[in-house]
Write a structure and sequence with these properties.
single chain; alpha/beta; 12 helices; 322 residues; 24% strand; globular
């Protein structure tokens, strides 16, 4: 592939809590190419959404801040841009579909006004042209009463409908990089397929890069080219999607698909990874997954493993593969 459209290098994000600074994302590095879909998976609290908000420069400050690292988009370090320069990038070149449709839409403006604003801010479209494009986008995300919804307020819509509006806003300016944070969570299966198909068409037509943050491994298998597995603010495994599903290396990655219910195993007790993700800022001497790992060895408690190559385009942060 050509030069990545986005390169994140040693990103560290910290939050201040009760005068103590805690690290939420700990020195992660990855890249995304134009036309590629990169999946980011992991349990809630592992740093997926904070990573995406950091790229958009939307970390609330205070209490949060990008402590160190680079976020390079098209040869520009986004961490060094002024707020005015970053505003030109957001929504136009890099767009984000947020995880919470209930709170991401402005309750005092109509749906149409909120989509129009994005289009007019970043394009030369007239008011009438923006309205026509907004209604068309609403239709493309599966909203049948698009003209009526255009004049509606967010409180008049269901959660699934609001999620589709958020997707329409995210795709309105045909961005070069689309960050989708759980884009299909509130949608039924039929609408999920429509949305995923819409994202694929956008990618095919515009060569858009997509960062897809999700808990749904089925969506990952359907959509992604490469996958990052995050745990406790670190990337524990990175691989092409086929390698990750057919030959996972990290004990955490191995456990994720085993935790999914299967119709073929109705009589067996559902497998679960013991314990839970440690709270952000928890200080550990060794591997962060050691307390939950069923293959833990003595070295895991004493030293934190580095990410090592375990195959072509496949890395893993585990002492079992050091």
């Amino acid at each position: 592939m050509n030069t990545p459209i986005l390169t994140v290098n040693q990103l560290q994000v910290c939050f201040t809590k009760e005068s103590e600074e805690i690290t939420v994302v700990n020195g992660i590095s990855f890249h995304v190419h134009a036309g590629e879909t990169l999946g980011i998976v992991g349990e809630s609290g592992c740093g997926k959404s904070i990573t995406s908000l950091s790229i958009m420069r939307l970390i609330p400050s205070p209490p949060g801040r990008i402590a160190s690292g680079q976020i390079v988009y098209n040869n520009r370090d986004l961490t060094q841009l002024s707020e005015e320069e970053m505003s030109d990038v957001r929504g136009n070149e890099i767009s984000m579909i947020f995880q919470e449709p209930m709170t991401s839409l402005n309750p005092v403006f109509t749906i149409g006004r909120q989509i129009d604003e994005i289009i007019q801010l970043h394009t030369s479209a007239s008011k009438q042209e923006a309205k026509e494009q907004s209604i068309e986008m609403l239709k493309r995300v599966g909203i049948s009463r698009a003209e009526q919804i255009y004049h509606s307020y967010p409180f008049e819509l269901s959660g699934g409908m609001r999620q589709r509006v958020m997707i329409a806003i995210g795709m309105a300016c045909q961005p070069k990089l689309l960050i989708a944070d759980e884009p299909t969570t509130a949608l039924d299966v039929t609408i999920q397929l429509q949305i995923l198909d819409l994202m694929k068409k956008l990618q095919a037509n515009e060569n858009t890069a997509i960062m897809l943050i999700t808990h749904d491994l089925g969506v990952v298998a359907e959509m992604c080219d490469r996958v990052l597995v995050m745990y406790a603010g670190e990337i524990v495994e990175e691989a092409d999607v086929d390698d990750l599903f057919h030959d996972p290396k990290h004990p955490y990655t191995i456990g994720l698909p085993r935790s999914i219910p299967s119709s073929a195993e109705k009589k067996r007790r559902l497998y679960s990874i013991k314990g839970q993700v440690p709270p952000a800022g928890t200080k550990t001497k060794g591997c962060r997954f050691a307390e939950r790992c069923d293959r833990v060895i003595d070295r895991c408690w004493k030293e934190s493993p580095e990410s090592v190559s375990v195959g072509k385009n496949h890395t893993c942060r585990c002492w079992l593969h050091a």
